[in-house]
Specification:
The structure is a homodimer of 337-residue chains. By secondary structure, chain A is α/β, with parallel strands linked by helices. Chain A contains 13 helices and twelve strands.
Chain lengths: 337, 337
DNA sequence: CCGATATATGACACCGCTTGACATATCGAG
DNA sequence: CTCGATATGTCAAGCGGTGTCATATATCGG
């Protein structure tokens, strides 16, 4: 029955010219309320869906944007996708979520391919693609608008939304210090992510301000995943003079530390305080629930989408973080004078 | 400089007809090795990317498929997306991940819109959209091929991939019984998901076979999320004659039970065994790590994609599950004669 | 060596929509 | 009554591919 109706069918049914239907479709001025209504009625009656392909081809906007990511944290990506998604839906824009591999030398090509093949109107970059040079260059060459979520470099060059990772880490460290901790272990994030450095920086700054010396021996590498948390936890708890608190730069790694503590019968927070970062669902799911930094991921994504779709000038928006106190932190057992 | 090259540019550069380039693009027979090489060389030189829009418009396949989902478990969706992704990438197919809301009365329309606008060649449905009537009807009316991942109903009507939820739940229950448990609490899954019923069924079947009576008082409602696990855990641990083991129908809820146990100082697995289902990363992340059923999510997704792209006849594929033993299960403290 | 068949390539219309150049028509303001 | 703003239509071109049909050459059995 219902072969998909095209613009001509609609025009015929509404008794107007094809051009007029096109005008209605594109919100052109100089269309009377009356005809507009008639055309819209016809569209509805025919269940008319303008072919995106045809519109794109004839040079119009595609009403599609892409979210490019390469992040292996399910929680993080879920939040980001959802944030973008909600705003897009509300605006009638289609979202293409595209994973890439930032370590692949051909990423630039892949992105170029994505843009030229699908004709997306704009792009949202999430960390760590935000700082992937080949991608950035490709996008600039293509002259397509894009917004970065939590970029680490060249902050000013393109629109971006972000939170203050350094300040957040500073806040958390200060919180620990205020609780009485003096030896605070720190597990770094994935080296690909610029935020990792910022968090370490915040940790050091808080230490400095409090007059505590920075001990490289209390820092360990991590990759933002559970296993590196386990490694870090083991390393720190094996230390002869072990820390009374561990600040892991994300929740997954904090969970790893928790597992190590449980495994060794080290009570948290009684004998060891543990904190995370991000406030993913994981933070509430583990035991004890994690004191962590709430990173407004969905909000960041939503805001990025808004900026992209608004399409105005260079915009930078910083969203606030929050320190969430839960049960994984307590004053150290015996205060060392 | 580089305005995007089109097929004509390529043709000119290779010294052949446009049609010939098209043939090369689509792997048509009857193109000599020689011309093919020449054309490909030209494409490379010009960095040619065929416009999806144009191909769609001219009636060809779009080389795009959509994954439709409405699942709020980040980990599950991450795995599913990744599974689809990998195969698509390998096949040069673009994947559009599209969330929907199965409770929205207009889902059918949304899906219809998606298909007619993007001209996707096929669709993958993940639970619970697999059993969403409006969507199913819309897809059938559109006469577009689709594959369902873990459908609960009308199994035979469309291609599908799935695991044996009932058997898996049976296995898990039997495992607990073999460990000596006689009173096993069960937390149901989200009522929207057909798998929830299957898992309950498997639990009952194992009980029956072991000659244990089914006690409705040991069953509680759940929604596949942490909070309902907490509710279920509280309910079960408040019981005068409380169970020695709790089988939660997914890992998130099992984590909830664990939290309740920790909170009450109930040792797991010493005083209470807890098991999950799915084997998400969460299962390894909580303490103690969960004994659970490994559901091959990425594999299911990958297989579904394979079937869809192969585009052959009705296919059904069951993938095996595995019972993963970790530390959350032990024999009950004192055996009741 | 011939017509038949397989292989290889080209010409051209067309997919559904937008757009620009014009042509008209109506209408209220000056 | 004329003018500019508003409203609508006609027509042709074009976006970047693909399908159909025609054509040209190579190959092959008899």
């Amino acid at each position: 029955m219902s072969e998909r109706a095209n613009i001509r069918d609609v025009a015929a049914r509404a008794g107007v010219a094809v051009k007029t239907v096109s005008r209605v479709l594109n919100d052109h001025p100089y269309v009377s309320k009356d005809t507009k209504a008639r055309v819209e009625e016809a569209m509805r009656a025919l269940d008319f869906r303008p072919s995106v392909a045809a519109r794109i081809l004839s040079g119009a906007k595609s009403n599609q944007i892409a979210l490019i990511y390469d992040n292996h944290s399910p929680y993080y990506m879920f939040q980001i996708q959802t944030g973008c998604w909600e705003y897009c839906k509300q605006q009638g824009i289609r979202l293409l979520a595209q994973p890439v591999d930032v370590t692949d030398p051909r990423v630039g090509d892949q992105v170029r391919g994505l843009v030229t093949e699908t004709h997306v109107d704009g792009i949202i970059l999430s960390s760590p693609v935000t700082d992937c040079d080949p991608v950035l260059r490709a996008l600039e060459a293509l002259d397509i608008p894009f917004v970065r979520i939590s970029p680490g470099t060249n902050h000013a060059l393109t629109s971006s939304v972000f939170m203050d990772d350094a300040q957040a880490a500073d806040d958390m460290t200060t919180h620990l210090i205020n609780m009485g901790h003096r030896r605070i272990g720190f597990i770094k994030g994935h080296p690909n992510h610029m935020a990792s450095d910022d968090r370490l920086f915040g940790y050091r700054r808080a230490l400095d301000r409090a007059g505590l010396s920075f001990e490289p021996g209390l820092i360990c590498d991590g990759e933002f995943d559970f296993d590196s948390g386990v490694r870090g936890g083991n390393y720190l708890l094996d230390l002869p003079d072990r820390p009374t608190a561990v600040f892991a730069s994300n929740d997954d790694m904090a969970a790893g530390v928790l597992a190590v503590a449980h495994d060794r019968g080290v009570n948290v927070p009684g004998e060891l305080s543990v904190t995370g970062f991000d406030d993913t669902t994981l933070a509430r799911t583990v035991w004890p629930p994690l004191t962590t930094i709430h990173q407004p991921m969905a909000e960041l994504a939503r805001t990025a989408t808004e900026i992209l779709i608004a399409g105005g000038d260079l915009t930078h928006r910083r969203l606030p973080h929050t320190l969430i106190e839960r049960a994984s932190v307590a004053p150290p057992a015996r205060n060392i004078a």
